[in-house]
Amino acid sequence: HEQRVVLGRTDSAVDGRVEAGPAGAAVELGRRREQLLAAAGAALIAAYAKGSSEADAYRKAISETGNIAGTSIGQLNEYARSIGQVVGNQSQAAAALAAFVATGRVANQDLERFARTAIETQRATGKAVADTVKEYAELGKEPVEASRRLNDSMNYLTLSVYQQIKALEEVGKKTDAARVAQEAYDREMSRRASGI
User: Fold this and answer.
1) What b/e sequence results for 29-68 when a residue is b if at least 16 CB atoms lie within 10 Å of its CB, and e otherwise?
2) Judging by beta carbons within 10 Å of its beta carbon (0-12, 13-18, 19+), is residue 165 exposed, middle or buried?
């Protein structure tokens, strides 16, 4: 006949597998401790694997673009932590950051802000982060044309901002035009996401 050990009880087990009294309680505590340590170890392994896959995604994006964004894995990890504190999901932030870096069209100083906006836009409107990343990338590639196209559907640019983008591109300052276009788009997307 076998009885289970319940902490604080002094029952005995006839087959000798469970000790009685304080010794039985100590055995049970040891078993529970081992179970907790195993669970904690599994959680650490999962977190390491997740962090490792995020670092791999960053490494790939940086490598494939020749690090045109001028960033590092360490910076991207910090950005993801910061965004995660705001939006509550660091892995989603990491994925968005990797996607932005992979475009080769967003500067390091804008990565964190644009990724946060893309995630907030998705939460507010359901628009996929990948779609928002694509729009920022288009603005980086063809600032005037992409601004015109996006403005036709979203009506967010003022005439003076559009003229500034166009003038910068016309004088060969395409990178500056892209930054103005992306920042104007970001301001509007952020405003709309927070207003919904």
Assistant:
1) eeeeeeeeeeeeeeeeeeeeeeeeebbebbeebbeebeee
2) buried
DSSP 116-154: HHHHHHHHHH---HHHHHHHHHHHHHSHHHHHHHHHHHH
| Residues 6+ positions from 13 with CB-CB distance below 8 Å | 2, 3, 5, 19, 20
Q: Quote the CA–CA distance of 65 and 69 in Å, as a whole number.
A: 8
pLDDT, tens digit (0-9, with 9 covering 90-100), for 66-116: 999 999 999 999 999 999 999 878 999 999 999 999 999 999 999 999 999
Q: Which residues contact 162 (CB under 8 A, 6 or more apart)?
A: 147, 148, 151
Look up the pTM and report it. Answer: 0.72
Instruction: Dump pLDDT digits (tens) for 38-73.
Output: 444 334 333 433 445 788 999 999 989 999 999 999
